[in-house]
Amino acid sequence: MLDHHHACRAARCGLEAERAAAGEKIEAGEPVEALAEPVEQRLAHAVRRRAQSRLRRNRDAAAAVLAGDDSQPAFARIHRSMVAALSWAARLKAGLARTREVLNTPVPVLLARRRVDESLYEELEAALLQADCGVAATQAIVSSLRRKKLEDGEALRRALKDALAELLLPLERKLEITGARPFVIMLAGVNGSGKTTSIGKLAHWLQLQGRSVLLAAGDTFRAAAREQLVAWGERNGVPVIAQPSGDPGAVVFDALGAARARGAEVVIADTAGRLPTQLHLMEEIRKLKRVASKAQAGAPHEVLLVLDANTGQNALAQVKAFDDALGLTGLVVTKLDGTAKGGVVCAIARERPVPLLFVGVGEDIDDLRPFVARDFAEALVG
Hints:
Elements: H1 2-21, H2 39-69, H3 73-76, H4 80-95, H5 97-104, H6 107-111, H7 118-130, H8 135-148, H9 153-168, E1 183-188, H10 195-208, E2 213-216, H11 225-236, E3 240-241, H12 248-262, E4 266-269, H13 279-295, E5 302-308, H14 314-326, E6 330-334, H15 344-351, E7 356-360, E8 368-370, H16 373-381
Parallel strand pairs: 1-4, 1-5, 2-3, 2-4, 5-6, 6-7
Antiparallel strand pairs: 7-8
Helix pairs in contact: 4-16, 7-8, 8-9, 8-15, 9-16, 10-11, 12-13
């Protein structure tokens, strides 16, 4: 490479000597104007100016639209609660989309038929089973539809919604915070079902109801469980009672004492995930329940099982096992937006009707709401 540069320099010097000998005047070329800034920066400034001007135009247009809306008193009178209700109905329907797709795979074609026949009922039965509604619930639903002697697909759609709502209605119960203070809620479930996240969302929902909440980090086994609950506490602005390690019963005992001292109305206790087949861990959670009852008369007042809807029919087995061990008072079904097995709620309603207090259909803090049978049936069928 060095030899190449030397050769080029020698050739250039030789050319200049020849031109000087020939009498040609050698002048320096005009200097090149130096750029004030690199080309890349110039381009960036130009693009930024263009984007800013476009942003100003869009902002001015949006302001004009909003100014126009101010002249519409009907729009201004819409109550926030009505907007929130409509928003939740839309999120619930979107969350159950995958289950509805399974149900609707053959159903739109079937319901488009003018005549309801036996083959239609057989295909509907297959669709319900595919959505994990369970054999017993599916047979009950299809049998009730057959007895109605429906004539067309639209009538069948309406009857299917009514049959689902009737089946799910016994699961509908509101969480009532009454009597004891603090009111103690204990959450249980298998690993990865979403207990800690559900606690954070439930705390937020209770705050919207005007309740003061305190959290107890009773999961002393899973790595970062305590930190996760503390993060939820900071997000909601609620205190969290936790210990670096030790007995979960001691954590709950301390939490109840702290709640009484601070005047908190509700204590929500997290517990470590466990499988129903792990007998020693099931005995431990029974012990935790006994500790709570000694620290507070009648506690825990609610024992909720958190279920991952993705587990399908296995969720029914979990309900039976935890109910036998703890005496469940309610359920929380999470992750309905990520599964096509939302029909398992029908199986639970048919075979072990433990009240379903809350359903989760997303990751946002507002995506955990009380279960309403009619809304669920409407969102499921579409």
